[in-house]
Amino acid sequence: MSNIELKVEGRIWINAGTINFVGDGKIHLLEKIKELGSLRKASLEMKMSYRQAWGQINKMNLVYNKPLVVLHRGGKDGGIAELTAFGEKIITIQKELHREFELFLDFQSKKIQNV
Amino acid sequence: MSNIELKVEGRIWINAGTINFVGDGKIHLLEKIKELGSLRKASLEMKMSYRQAWGQINKMNLVYNKPLVVLHRGGKDGGIAELTAFGEKIITIQKELHREFELFLDFQSKKIQNV
DNA sequence: CATCGTTATTCATTATTAAGCATAACGATA
DNA sequence: TATCGTTATGCTTAATAATGAATAACGATG
Question: How far apart are CA A100 and CA B104, in angstroms?
Answer without folding.
Answer: 9
